[in-house]
Amino acid sequence: MSTQRVQVAIIGAGPSGLLLGQLLHKAGIDAIVIERQSPDYVLGRIRAGILEQITVDLLHEAGVGERVHSEGTVHHSIELVFANTRHPIDVTGLTQGKVVTAYGQTEVTRDLMDARQAAGLPSIYEAAHVQLHDFKGASPRVSYEKDGRSHVIECDFIAGCDGFHGICRASVPPGAIREYEKVYPFGWLGVLADVPPVSPHAVVYANSDRGFALCSMRSLTRSRYYVQCPMDDKVSNWSDDRFWDELRRRLDPDMAERMVTGPSIEKSIAPLRSFVAEPMRFGRLFLAGDAAHIVPPTGAKGLNLAASDVKYLSNALIEHYLEKSDAGIDHYSQRALARVWRAARFSWWLTSLMHQFPDTAGFGQKVQEAELDYLVHSESMSRSLSENYVGLPLDFGGALGLPTSS
Hints:
Blueprint (H helix, E strand, L loop, with lengths): L1 E4 L2 E4 L3 H12 L4 E4 L4 H5 L6 E3 H9 L4 H6 L1 E3 L1 E6 L2 E5 L1 H4 L5 E3 L2 H14 L4 E2 L3 E6 L7 E6 L2 E6 L2 E4 L6 H4 L7 E16 L8 E6 L5 E5 L5 E7 L10 H10 L3 H6 L5 E15 L2 E2 L2 E3 L5 E2 L7 H21 L4 H28 L8 H15 L1 H12 L16
Parallel strand pairs: 1-12, 2-3, 2-13, 3-9, 6-15, 13-20
Antiparallel strand pairs: 4-8, 5-8, 6-7, 10-11, 11-12, 14-17, 14-18, 15-16, 16-17, 18-21, 19-20
Helix pairs in contact: 1-6, 1-10, 10-11, 12-13
């Protein structure tokens, strides 16, 4: 058995774990990343690609912002489609110049992987039987197996960045954690295709009596489109032709006519759920990202919430090591959860507004259209949507009486 010592053990090599590792490295804090999957598997996961300005700024802070700056596409607006009519929302104008950037999560992960490798920082991929030990005490440990050998990492803190199905949250005693969950009665059928986006400078949200649709992008030549589908639907039921036909039926006529179609390069169905675990700290174990919370993708908050968790957590650990203060550690869970619940509320509201529910037909559909009509014609409602869409400030939790986080 081999044993090594680091200051922080990070479980999970997705964007949250890699971003935390990069920020700690910049501050001179020793951390190792442990991942149960291979690098190719991690890079093969197709996820969201709309980044708040806070997330883009954090990538620059971590020293990996060059490609998102040169290759990301800035969005100044979103478009809402209902009753066969498209309505633009001037997000930038309503938020004093704020924007979001279209840049795929896979590319964020790739940038962070490349930076970690270039710096010669330790990452353990394909680690089997990862286990957490003694994180309630002063000397936590992580054990794992690789290539038929057992390994132990002794550390000061463990960062659980290993996703919804990871070992970190599962290692917390049931009585120490409370979970809140809402499962939605539908899924999203998503298609990735090498076609130009139907709207290159905005994400399109469509409400129709056939169900929800979303038009997004990964670049000016690659698009990501979704349609609402039953929970028990199967990808095999959807040919490319059927998907494109259904998507057109849910958009306004002009947009449907100019949409460019092509063969799908990836097609999958994702369930929708809201999930929050409280608290996000257990002794010397911290949860971050999907390990602690899931939001439906409607509001594009999943990756951005993970990034804000990492910002709070990296600041807390830097304060601990460099300033000998545990204030950030003590307030991490409360500060992160304040932002999580605001994003969970926004994602729930937008999901409820845009989708067909079992009881939506008829009266419910008309109520949705009435609220959407009010939203697009009310400056205050449009501003509220825009403020949440671009991301609330990191220090918004000052209202809770917490010290602000830089």
